[in-house]
Amino acid sequence: MESQKNISEFILLGLSYDQDIEVFCFVLFLFCYISILAGNFLILVSIRGSSLFHQPMYYFLTHLSCVDICYTSSVTPKLISDLLVGTKTISYNNCMLQVFTGHFFGAIEVFILTAMAFDRYVAICKPLHYMVIMNRTRCNLLILAAWAGGAVHSFPQLYMTIQLPFCGPNVIDHYFCDIFPLLKVACIDTYITGVLVAANSGTVTLVTFVVLFVSYVIILLTLRNHSAEGIRKALSTCGSHITVVVLFFGPSIFSYLRPPNTYPEDKIFALFYTIIAPMFNPLIYTLRNMEMKNAIRKIWCQMLFSKKAHN
Q1: pLDDT digits 0-9 by tens, 115-135
Q2: Angle at alpha carbon of residue 72, lines to 66 and 78, rounded to 5°
Q3: Which listed residue, of 76, 150, 228, 247, carries a Cα 20 to 30 Å from 98's Cα?
Q4: In 3-state terms, what secondary structure has residue 134?
Q5: Angle, helix 228-256 to helix 92-125, in steps of 10 degrees
């Protein structure tokens, strides 16, 4: 922790220098954050209050919603509050915490999306053995593996970051603390560290993306032998997952599967995987899914009638 002796805080440049644009962004991202919380809490309450919780796909979805809330909460509240102030600062300790939580929950989300792809593969390619393969014990193990994978990914990232000495420049050209912008203001040659960080994040992103891609190629090949109704139903459930994967992985691949440099576009792409994708996840999984819509309608109608009866 020697690096903390010379730098006690960092200055974030944020999204824009224009005050009018920042006010607009404040309203927009406040709405986005409220939508993320409301949408994911709606999914959690609706699934936990219905029989869907016993189905593996929706069991994974509840965990995805929890991680989405934690992931976006590690960045978005700070971004929203900074949009109303002139000088945006963050303490050294909070900066390191943001680095850790961003990579920790981001990696968990990646691994849960991979587990959901495995669930869809088993449901479509091995339907007769689905409930045996995807029993609750195996689902719990997959979730545990996702959290363990998040820790294995994020702790080395944090360790490499806290070893960096910061002895002068403390201005970060970003709206939150991430490793590549921090490497740029460290006062040593960070080439090797940058390569290790890129290798860590790139490996997680690339391997999981390849696994997801291969699993859906196999699913699509298997669907050729299904009836038209079976294909429609399978594509309906898989389509939601594919949409979420594209929204999350597209910007992530640009940000981490590359040489350790910073680019002006980084902020825009970061908005997609920290705010936009978590906001659209509840909409995608509810509007495109009849079972979810029925569960939401049923649980909230019950709550409404219960309230009226109580009054």
Answers
A1: 988 988 888 888 888 989 999
A2: 140
A3: 247
A4: coil
A5: 160
Write the pLDDT tens digit of every residue in 132-152: 999 999 999 999 999 999 999
Find the angle CA(77)-CA(265)-CA(255) to the nearest 5 degrees: 80
Greatest pairwise CA separation for the chain in angstroms: 69
Residue 302 reports pLDDT greater than 60: yes
Distance CA 60, CA 68 (A): 12
Closest CA to 71 of 40, 104, 38, 97: 104
Please name which of 28, 117, 33, 100 lies closest in space to residue 69, comparing C-alpha atoms: 33
pTM of the complete model: 0.86
Q: What is the pLDDT of residues 177-205, one digit of tens each?
A: 988 889 888 888 888 888 888 888 878 88
Alpha-carbon radius of gyration of the chain? 21
Count of other CB atoms within 10 angstroms of residue 309: 7
Distance CA 241, CA 123 (A): 14
